[in-house]
Batch of 2 targets.
Target 1
Amino acid sequence: MSRATISFLRRGKRIDVSDVDPRMTLLEWLRLSERSTGTKEGCAEGDCGACTVVLARERNGRLVYEPVNACILLLGQADGTEVISIEDLETAKGLHPVQEAMVNRHGSQCGYCTPGIVMSLFALSHARPEKLDRDVINDALAGNLCRCTGYKPIVESALDSCSSSLPDHFDAREGATLAELSNFRAGEDVFMGDDSVFFAAPGSEASLAFLLKSHPDATIVAGATDVGLWITKGLQDLKKIIWLGRIRSLATIEESETSLTIGASITHQQALPRLSSLDPDIGELGRRFGSTQVRMSGTVVGNIANGSPIGDWPPLFIALGATLELREGFSSRKLPLEEFFIAYRKQNREPQEYLRRITIQKPGADDHIRVFKVTKRRDEDISAVMGAFKITVKDGLVADARIAFGGMAGIPKRAFNTERAIIGASIKDIATWRAGAEAMERDFEPLSDHRASADYRMRVARNLVIKALAEIAGVPSSTTRIFAHREATHAAE
Amino acid sequence: MPQNDATQRYLGRSLPHDSAERHVSGRALYIDDMPEPEGLLHIALGGSPVARGKIMSLDVRDVRAAPGVVAVLTAADIPGKNDVSPAMGDDPMFASDHVEFVGQALFAVVAHTRDQARRAVRLVKTVIDEEKPSVTVEDALERNETVLPDYAFGRGDVAEALISSPVQLEGMFNIGGQEHFYLEGQVALALPGEGQEMHVHSSTQHPTEVQHAVARVLGIPDAFVTCEVRRMGGGFGGKESQATQWAAIAALAARVTNKPCKIRLDRDDDMMMTGKRHEFRVDWKIGTDEAGHIRGLDLSLLARCGYSADLSQGVVDRAMFHSDNAYFFPAVQIASRRLKTNTVSNTAFRGFGGPQGMLAIERIIDAVASATGRDPLDIRKENLYRSDGAVTPYGMPVEDYDTAHAIIDQLEREADYRERRRAIDEFNADSPLIRKGIALTPVKFGISFTLTQLNQAGALVHVYSDGSIHLNHGGTEMGQGLFQKVAQIVAEEFGVAIERVRITATTTGKVPNTSPTAASSGSDLNGMAALLAARAIKSRMAEFLSTSRGVPVESIRFVDDHVIVGDARIPFSDVAKATHQARIHLSEAGYYKTPKVEWDRAQARGRPFYYFAYGAACSEVAIDTLTGEMRVERVDIVHDVGRSLNPALDIGQIEGAFVQGLGWLTTEELVYDNKGRLRTHAPSTYKIPVASDIPEHFKVTLFDGANREDTVFRSKAVGEPPVMLGISVYSAILNAISSLKPGAQVPLDAPATPERILKAVQALGGGGGF
């Protein structure tokens, strides 16, 4: 079974594309091929959201509406979805309710970010959040920059329009859309192009193994939230692209009593409910991961495969304890996550290998989790310092500690000296906290860059030890932090 | 002029932006969205890889040979002058001899697709004999290089005032720049016409300057060039003088290839190749009495201008003009230097230097409050201009100083400042890790271009014989709602439905010799010009009806799309038709120049501003002394827009400007390395505010009061002044840090990033935890 086209729905009709460069982004296709210019390019790196479009796809029998950054999404990643752009919201009867609210609330000024914002709100309205408050809306908008309004009228538009349970014209034809989408058969291999230039979306791991064997030089993408930039910014001439998004066996999350296993094509957004349930700090880290658009396309395992020293999942997973499964052909090997990162941008992976899944240890009853991501801007920013703590406390003593940091070295890395300095000590003793903080100096020699200086990074890393241990010792987080108080989260539950 | 609210049909009403429905539906066309003409070619630019040096060779052979390339343009291809500067002649379109900043344009590639052009650029081989660049203010001081002469003004014996003051303080601090980050990057489309004609669509706040630069570069008269702009996706000053170069390059490409040519800068190129808000170093000395009443101020403003003059004369002058903010100084000296660095040429940015001058004095006032142990708000209030001291350091009387008092009093009351101050003090006394702070700061902002000749505007109004109205003026629409405000004025004057007024794109072909849409002056100038045009046509219609119907002209009224003539109620469209048939001209070019303004810069005398716009903001913040993270907890604003032409648009300007000011002073950090390379050249690294940075309590109240000057409808300019309301957040951060060691000076530079906050916390002995 094989299909030689990238295929998706537009306005209810099937589009088959067979003759485009595999690097073509969805935004380029919309603006240059279809000539739908309502969707804008603001940054071409997935940070401003002006290019936001919605991909409607079937998940668990339901049609879901996922906002994505079209500027860094490869056209092929839209395969099997309905592509909804700003032009599609208005009908002969008039504006969509979210558009109307934006007009009534004066939510646009220059108007350039507006189509992207409307699409984010459109997606939010279809997500039908249980409670629609400012936090939910801010979250939905974290990936949309507006330089004119100061956001207040946009948030008000969302409050006005996104809780409406009134069906729109997309709801009205949901059944038909699902039926159309079911024609894109699961398991079918997609291969557009020829042996030298192609976009491939294998339908199974067997097909993937076969492809990788013939094309070890191919670039594997899952969410392309990083590879997209190699193309738009780096102008890398990627000729062979293999996308994992059609492989069902990689799209699984398995949960046991003690662990959580996340497959290679699971997006951040899909993994978030399970990860959040482990600890409120993990939920907050996930909430702050990129933006809604990035979480909808980017994958958890991709964040590891990418090998960045400032990815946010690796330090957390190292602290929790995690094992990677790498596969080549039909044989797998397993590796503790911290051993995957060898040096800056160098990982323990062979060219034909791919990261199949990651298994994360769930915290036990005596384990205390604390996660701190320190950034210039609270939302949609990359960590200057990110610290993850798993502290096991028994009888008031620190029985075990796993502490890992991002942004402090060329790779995500454990703070072994700090761990040793506090193991065995009394959690309530301020001297323990200080000893832990001081040991940090022996764990890391951070760099200075545009995000932060080495001094700042070290000072913050030290202070995070104090903050984490103080909180675990019982100091209420309402007095230790200005955001994301743990008490509030618990109260809300 | 319409004066009575009761009869207003449109003025003072919160109509949506004229393009609101088109914005939300994706139907609003920006230049890159326009249908592409047959044979369109695309342009990409090659920039200098180094900040300072001599160009030894520029080898573009491989570029020329790359797939899809039609032409490669360098300085040698320019038929006219290699100059895209606004005035001083020091901004070459393509560097040809020396390079002066990283990213300075060296050449352009013209290709069939944008992708081909961008790829071809990378094939250039450039050899530059590199010199050590000046990157910082200190580098420039050491080299003693400036882009324009030093300038100073003041009054009284400052040295004596300082020495004799019981409280003497001095300090130095740095103010960061700011990237405009208009969402629509720089873009232009040039269409070659017959003969030497050139039609340029440019995303510019200054179509006339684009027209002039295109003509200059091509070596043709201005009359051969038309520049048109329907809308910009944001401007903020970044498209005042610095949209010109890209339009001129597109025009050159169109001339050379004889094809339509489009240029759209990639975001990174845009951020590296266009100027920003000026960084400043402020050196200051102040003398006060024991209670903090200012006796003397000695201020030195060291501006980092980048490699060329651009608009730095006006920008730094305006910083000087706002170094008093709303305060009276008996003796004062304000000096300024316009320092040359090998960085992109800094330019206009909403506030045009005013924010830096104002931040300087507010920062100093906070230092006085620390030193005297008094509430900063009391220091502020007691130093305000008042009847016995109401002349600015540049000699302009402050006639409406009472507005500042009234606004501050109202805000102090409505924001519950005193009670919250007490609550915060209590909170801090018992909070080792988290500290809170509050500040209430005023804004007094001078309205008018300080270059007096710019204070003029034209408009063109046609009434067609079916009664529909064509409106055009020299102002440009960048999101601020200018087009709608002016349309409201015209509809009001004719007494017709606003749908009858067709708003049209700004073009140098209809209204010539325009000033930039800048200095917050858009509706003051263009609104008045359009009003005068409409009024002239209306008068002719009325006179015709008076004569033909024998009714006194004073009794004729234009209301509800009708004209009331005696007992008759004639549809406006019929009147238009009849007037035309009577051979009466139904078109008018309106012209307005601002009265009262005159400024003698050499003597530092005169009245640079027609009037002042006022406002005040009260902000509360919390900081984390372990990480330096900061959260804005509450913001209240009272702002003066005179009598509002459109309250919704005005509030939108105030909210948006406040947030832009907030970003400037908190998260937006421009980082250059020691080679002069900007390291924060994309939104991944340069962080403007997002939705969650805005507190839930963010309340804006319009101050109830008309402009004392005779502006259109007694309104006031609103574009820039509220940017400086953001200073309240910075002041509140100082206040929070200050609680760690009352009385100590807080060493905090702007922007107050988490790193800078933590550094200041540590300097005051905090930041170590319990």
Note: Chain B touches chain A through 92 residues (CB under 8 Å).
Target 2
Amino acid sequence: MEPRLSRYIWTHTRKSQLWILLIVALSMIPYFMSFDLPKQIVNGPIQGQGFETPGATQLFLPISFSLPYFGEVNLFSGIELGRQGTLLALSLVFLLLVIINGLFKFYINTYKGRLGERLLRRIRFELVDRVLRFPPHHLKRVKPAEISTMIKDEVEPMGGFTGDAFVQPALLGGQALTALIFILIQSFWLGIIAFVIVAIQAIIIPRMRRRLLVLGRERQLTARELSGRVSEIVDGIGTIRGHDTSNYERADIAARLGRIFKIRYDLYQWKFLVKFLNNFLAQVTPFLFYSIGGYFALQGRLDIGQLVAVIGAYKDLPGPLKELIDWDQARQDVQVKYTQVVEQFSVEPLIDPKVQEVSVASPPVLSGALAAVNLTLADDGGAKLIEHVSFQVRPGETVAVTGGTGGGGEALAEALGRLAWPASGRIVVGEDDIHELPEAVIGRRISYASSEVYAFQGSLGDNLLYGLKHAPLTEVVYEGDKAAHRRWELLEAKLAGNPSLDLNSDWIDYGAAGATGPEDLFGKIRAVLDVVLLTNDISALAVRSTINSVEHEAFTQEIVEMRAALRRRLEAEKLSDLVVFFEPGSYNIEATVGENLLFGTVTDRARWEEALENHPFFKTVLKRAGLHETFYEMGLEIAENVVELFRDLPPDHPFFQQLTFMTSDEIPGYEALLQKVRGRPLEEVSEEDAIRIIRLCFGYIEPRHRFGLLTEELMQKIVESRREFSDGLPADLVGIIEHYQPNRYMASATILDNVLFGRIGHKHTDGSDKIRAIVRDLFEALGLYNKVLAFGLDFDVGAGGKRLTAGQRQKLNLARSLIRLSDFYIINQPLLALDQRTQDQITRNVFAFLHDEKRDPAIVWVLSNPALSELFDRVVHFENGRLVHEETVEAPSKDSDYKELAS
Amino acid sequence: MLLKDEVEMLRRITLFSGLPPAKLKLLAFTSDRVMYSAGENLFHQGDIGDAAYVILSGKADVLVSTQTGQLKVAEVEQNSIVGEIAILCNTPRTATIQTTTPLEALRIRKDDFLKLLADFPEMAVEIMRVLADRLSQTTSELTEARSRAQRAEA
């Protein structure tokens, strides 16, 4: 990158800078005219100069000038106006000038702003572009937060400075020079004095400011480090808490903040010292004028008029000069920042932009062998990970790499996947070095997957298809306003040196997934999800999600119809006790007392709590149903039990996870409450206390909590009072509860709950697994499974995919590679988070999948379980970074394996 | 069955006999009561262990998969604890437990179990005794198997 900011700005904004200079020069004309006008107004019409006689008139706006050799040219002889007329006319001209000046200012400011923003966009893009081309070893050294601070915050002032970069010095310099020349003309010696003082200012102040710049640079570095540390703390919070090192972190942050404070305070001290000096020098000049100029005047070597003129002219000097010095300060400041940033981003060797060029065409099949030639890889410290390895994979060949951690197989795979660059030697496909071939070829024809996963924030489906988004494949046709907006986008992108790739285009390369378009892509997705055993996870995510029942009305209807099918199925399998269904006329023993009473779920927890405490409705209905006292007794019993069970436990005890009635900090409150109300009849207990006790009942489930509180009679009573709750619900509580209706979809409940329309029994340990399997089966049988999966693909995986388990992330990552049709698959222990049984099964699945449909891609698989090597054509064994053993797997065992797979 | 009945039942198990009744109640409350019919698996060899089971009633076989198929290595019945090894050592399940009769068990989650051991050293000692018992049994079986193998060779 260009090391000097001013040159960078000039290169990219030359034309605009010249244009704005011209505009600024033009704007000077009305600006100076408006200086002169007030004097004319005051002297002329107001004080009466030229209107000495009543009825005198003056010419308004005569336009005439004299040209050499040509004489007087009279363009407009002016209008005759009286005193009041002239006053009005001149005032109107003044107003006009004010407007013109304002418009000029408006134009110049917006123009400069736009100029700055464009340059800022350009710098930021260029920096991110560089990040995308960084060599791998550099990316290991930098902290992501520091990079993003640089791109986000540190370059920002450069945008602001851009507009002023050339205009400001020209303008202010001009003004200062004019004033100085004027003084020189009036009196040579006073001019020299002024000049010397200005020179001192111009030399000393920038020098003093150098220290400011050093401090500024330190401030920038420390602030950047701080942001790096803060993000480290956030990322490593688990480790920090786990090792009780939070106070170490506190100390570190405090020390950093202390340093930043010191730097900033130093900065203030210097800044104001410089300011003081600057002001002093500016003020000392008039002192010299008065004393020396006065002395000259007394001696008669200078006339008083000149002295007054000099002093008057000097008033115009410090202003521009100060601004000029400020400008210079700003310039150096952004220059320092710029240099800092550029240093960080000038990394060699950057990947050649040609390698990453956009290519819409599908790349040629790699027909040559993928080979490492005398390859040596080293880690950051220079230790050799593998040494002088020569290794070849022919197209269609399958190779197992064994040797475990530290053997070198992983490093080799990383190098083949271009995650690590060779320290010496080469990696070639056919004849070409893979680092010189375009990524459009290598990045599509070679797929790499390891256990180090990065999932981007977004939906699961987006992440799965991420590896297909190489280039914008469709031309989006925009109409009307959108077309205009698109044109604007393209123009601006060009002016800021950004690429014009359209994000709205369809980036998914269906062909690269073996599909013909969006319609049959889902089949491919389903196939890879099945291969990596992710389908069940996704359907589990889907059925636990709530969907917009208005948008997907047809689907919700099908779900409702499934309820009957599920019952039939459970009956057929003699598993009817697995789920207790919601029946309007009977108590559901597996649901909470609250659900049974309301026969519905609460949609808005906060409003519900509020209503339960304050709304008279619940109390009156409970009383009318004769449940008030029973519930109080029941709540009392629950409270006694819970307090007895949990009283002695520390608040962070894991057992509290089993407690649903209250939180650990509510226990002392209930303990006190119990002492207060124990043995007293309900009438003597305050209403508030009674409610606190009664609300405990709502969460009670007999088979789960097993306190033995529900009698047949009570259940009967609860069922009977359901109607009161549903029919009598006052208008202000409508919407708080969604009632269970056998033939309606509940929008606030998950898909699974909607299918079950009941609760899973507590008796079976794996009840929920079983039911999920049955429901899955039913979905499949009814042809709904793919729709359900589609909802699962909408699941937001969170930042870095943190909402998925580590195992799910690794499966997703493997699926992401498998969905691409490549010639070489480099698979580097991709599933370390899973147990061995599942790993083996997925490995076999992947094998069967990749060799299906007459495809014959090459596979290099770094195995964590050597037992699987019989699947492969060849096994290479690494030890201590050397290839120590290489053998062809005998055909028979492979054959039998294939038979096994086929069966 | 109610919580208090479970407490009665737990009290009869040697492993928990040293615990005060209040703690037994807490243990019963935080654990899941699970039921199996004959022929079901409590857990499967190779799975990641997340809970231990106290058998309240019924019987089950301890099966280990070998190259020749499933091998029954032991039988467990009422009042015994199974599945604690995977929890204590953080290893995959070393065996499969398959019920032979309808079985009722208390499923104690891993974290809860470890916490209990930490809170009640008596229980830890008891667990040690169970493990040591099993080890000595295994050793004697191994010796026997070896000597049988030697005889067969001779």
Note: Chain A has four domains: 1-133, 171-350, 370-471+798-902, 583-741.
